[in-house]
């Protein structure tokens, strides 16, 4: 709390200083333009002295306006409006003349009629500056939303404060993309996320859950929202039956994955009943959509492209607030990248080019639009809302999962959560806030930085295909080439080039520290015998490379030193994959049964002591495979919801828990845990983690206040922030990305 007060005081002082500086520059400009307005002595002054005189005059005028103006307005309330309008200019000019007389040595002087003009211009500029700065302030933002909520209630005939608990609670699920269980624990312990820590003290619980082998947003969010992760082997994969590369964040791929999940489960999704999906890859069956990727590729009048952004930015206050934050975050990223280069931080990836703008878009624009949409959903009283905040995941990829860069992102995310909780107090129903993540992130040097060549280069070398001179000159490239020649029973001669076997080039796709290798010319899944016959050195080259942890080929796991384990033999895979954590063998076995599993699945090496992996992409914080914190996201819920169970394995299990919580809206409340002094982190069974907390003084998680009924259909709620809610009360979709 003390840290928050100091931050609030510091922000207020910064705003005062900026308004003062702008007013000073305005006064200097007017002194240069208007002939009857001067800021120097008769003998002339230096530029520095003139600047100090302007600063003195601007400060005096601002102080008089702040102290005297409210009293004057109150005294003149009985004056007719027309007369008061004329008096405003006269009184404002009089205050400026008084301020000029307060300048030492009589350096300030203006004719009365000029003083009126100067005062009007300075007041307008100061007001515009204050407004621009205030729109970035969460407290000012919150007060504005309160006024919108009160206006909506008065229009609907509910001017009195609603009675708490009269309406069925809604469920607000907020996804903190990429924030692992351990990262959340440390952020709460280090006061980076005081709002989350406060919720935990008041009765929320938190546990770790385990992802599938494909530990990435596409699989996890599809499972959470639609109840199926079947046949999603990675973030990117090649489908031989269509010749297409599926990419989870590609609109057409997301739409197809959602269609397959609905067909498999026979259900529209988690949010089919009065739900809203905001900033997600998939809709979850919601009627209200904004920035949802799976519907953004639709054509026609039913889909207004980027309407979520348009609705948000149609409000000038939102545009100014977000534009200022966007520029600030882009500059912040440039400064952070420069400091990392100067310090010689390792590991490090390139952060130049357009990346500062891409990061600012993810950490500012998407965050602001999604938060605004969620606020609109709560004020409309929707029963289920699921929103994704992607800021941490984007920054952690390039800066690493831990450090000053990601700490700042976590702090700003926490302020967004605090804003949503305060707005929920004005919602027409109470809301139970659930936080979760879709995966964590594991640190580590990239495969390219560590070994000097990409996995694609290594695969091509192992197949005897040409590679670049730089890649071929690395130790890994040379060893692969020698292995090919030895496998083909040919002597290694200087300048001799190995000839590849028949067939087209392999397709190599990376998903964090998981890679997929497919042979397009081989129908169906290639057998191990077929691969060894066509490319006799490839499997041994990959399995024995120090940057590779294991391979999956045709139901067999291959490890370094000739180790191998059949998935259909109990215990073999568990022993070989034990370093990758509990459940690794089960996750690999499940993926092996997918129709679109790749011919060769490659998981990078993993160091259990450091938690490091080697991403096959240019990411020093990565996820997508097995190894470390990437496979251990979190689930946090209010205590009156039922306990999710001892262990959650897979996103489909999380979907089942959220389904149950939605059904509990009108059911009996679950007792809270036994009393305790403070929340504390305790290890839960089988590599999970859980909070033990003192019972709250009030119902934890039901942060909103409710009414006895929802808004009538013929009187739709006003959408705050420029029309995030449909203005006609219809279920028309608000969908884009």
What does this 3D model show about the protein?
The chain has 737 residues and is of the alpha+beta class. The chain has a seven-stranded mixed β-sheet, with helices on both faces. Strand 15 and strand 16 form a beta hairpin. Helix 1 (2-33) crosses helix 2 (47-67) and helix 9 packs parallel to helix 25 (651-663). The protein is elongated, with a radius of gyration of 31 Å. The model is unreliable at 80-85, 157-166, 301-305, 487-502 and 667-737 (pLDDT under 50). It comes from Streptomyces erythrochromogenes. The chain crosses the membrane at residues 12-34, 46-69, 76-103. It holds the Pfam family Phosphodiest. Keywords: Membrane, Transmembrane, Transmembrane helix.
Shape: elongated
Mean pLDDT: 79
Major sheet: size, sense and barrel closure? 7 strands, mixed
Beta-strand proportion: 5-15%
> Which structural category do the helix and sheet elements fall into?
alpha+beta
Overall helicity = 40-55%
User: DSSP helix count?
Assistant: 26
User: Which residue ranges are poorly predicted, with pLDDT under 50 across at least 5 consecutive positions?
Assistant: 80-85, 157-166, 301-305, 487-502, 667-737
How would you name the oligomeric state of the polypeptide chains in this document?
single chain
């Amino acid at each position: 709390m003390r840290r928050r007060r100091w931050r609030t005081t510091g922000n207020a002082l910064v705003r005062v200083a900026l308004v003062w500086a702008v007013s000073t520059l305005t006064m200097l400009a007017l002194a240069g333009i208007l002939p009857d307005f001067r800021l120097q002595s008769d003998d002339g002054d230096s530029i520095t002295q003139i600047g100090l005189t302007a600063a003195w005059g601007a400060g005096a005028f601002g102080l008089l306006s702040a102290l005297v103006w409210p009293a004057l307005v109150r005294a003149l309330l009985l004056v007719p409006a027309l007369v008061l309008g004329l008096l405003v200019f006269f009184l404002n000019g009089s205050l400026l003349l008084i301020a000029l007389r307060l300048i030492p040595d009589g350096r300030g002087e203006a004719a009365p009629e000029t003083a009126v003009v100067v005062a009007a211009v300075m007041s307008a500029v100061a007001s515009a500056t204050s407004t621009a700065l205030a729109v970035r302030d969460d407290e000012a933002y919150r007060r504005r939303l309160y006024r919108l909520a009160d206006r909506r209630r008065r229009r609907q005939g509910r001017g009195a404060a609603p009675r708490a608990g009269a309406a069925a609670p809604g469920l607000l699920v907020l996804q903190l993309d990429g924030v692992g269980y351990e990262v959340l624990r440390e952020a709460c312990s280090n006061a980076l996320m005081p709002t989350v820590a406060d919720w935990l003290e008041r009765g929320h619980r938190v546990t770790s859950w385990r992802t599938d082998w494909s530990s990435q947003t596409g699989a996890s969010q599809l499972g959470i929202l639609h109840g199926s992760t079947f046949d999603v082997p990675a973030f990117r994969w090649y489908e031989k039956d269509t010749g297409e590369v599926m990419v989870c964040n590609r609109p057409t791929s997301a739409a197809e994955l959602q269609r397959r999940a609905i067909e498999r489960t026979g259900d529209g999704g988690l949010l089919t009943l009065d739900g809203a999906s905001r900033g997600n890859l998939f809709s979850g069956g919601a009627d209200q959509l904004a920035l949802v990727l799976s519907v953004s590729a639709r054509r026609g009048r039913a889909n207004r492209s980027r309407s979520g952004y348009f609705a948000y930015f149609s409000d000038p206050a939102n545009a100014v607030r977000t534009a200022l934050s966007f520029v600030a975050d882009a500059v912040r990223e440039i400064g952070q990248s420069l400091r990392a280069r100067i310090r010689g931080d390792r590991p490090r990836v390139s952060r130049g080019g357009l990346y500062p703008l891409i990061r600012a878009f993810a950490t500012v624009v998407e965050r602001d639009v999604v938060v605004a949409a969620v606020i609109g959903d709560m004020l409309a009283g929707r029963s289920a809302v699921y929103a994704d905040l992607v800021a941490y995941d984007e920054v952690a990829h390039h800066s690493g999962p831990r450090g000053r860069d990601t700490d700042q992102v976590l702090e700003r995310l926490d302020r967004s959560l605090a804003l949503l909780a305060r707005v929920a107090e004005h919602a027409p129903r109470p809301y139970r806030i659930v936080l979760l993540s879709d995966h964590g992130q594991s640190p580590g040097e990239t495969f390219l930085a560590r070994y000097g060549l990409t996995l694609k280069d290594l695969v091509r070398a192992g197949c005897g295909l040409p590679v670049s001179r730089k890649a071929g000159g690395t130790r890994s490239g040379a060893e692969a080439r020698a292995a090919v020649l030895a496998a083909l029973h040919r002597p290694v001669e200087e300048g001799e080039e190995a000839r590849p076997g028949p067939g087209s080039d392999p397709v190599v796709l990376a998903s964090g520290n998981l890679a997929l290798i497919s042979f397009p010319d081989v129908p169906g899944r290639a057998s191990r015998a077929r691969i060894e016959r066509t490319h006799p050195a490839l499997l041994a080259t990959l399995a024995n490379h120090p940057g590779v942890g294991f391979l999956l080929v045709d139901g067999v796991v291959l490890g370094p030193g000739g180790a191998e384990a059949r998935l259909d033999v109990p215990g073999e895979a568990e022993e070989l994959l034990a370093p990758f954590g509990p459940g690794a063998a089960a996750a690999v076995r499940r993926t092996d049964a997918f129709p679109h599993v790749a011919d060769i699945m490659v998981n990078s090496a993993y160091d259990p002591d450091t938690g490091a992996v080697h991403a096959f992409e240019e990411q020093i914080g990565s996820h997508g495979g097995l190894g470390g914190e990437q496979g251990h996201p979190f689930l946090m819920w209010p205590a009156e919801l039922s306990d999710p169970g001892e262990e959650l394995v897979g996103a489909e299990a999380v979907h089942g828990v959220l389904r149950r919580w939605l059904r509990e809206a009108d059911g009996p409340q679950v007792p809270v845990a036994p009393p305790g002094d403070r929340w504390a982190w305790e290890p839960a069974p089988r590599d999970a983690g859980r909070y033990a907390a003192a019972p709250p003084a009030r119902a934890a998680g039901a942060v909103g206040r409710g009414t006895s009924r929802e808004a009538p259909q013929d009187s739709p709620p006003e959408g705050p922030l420029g029309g995030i809610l449909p203005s006609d009360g219809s279920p028309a979709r608000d969908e884009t990305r």
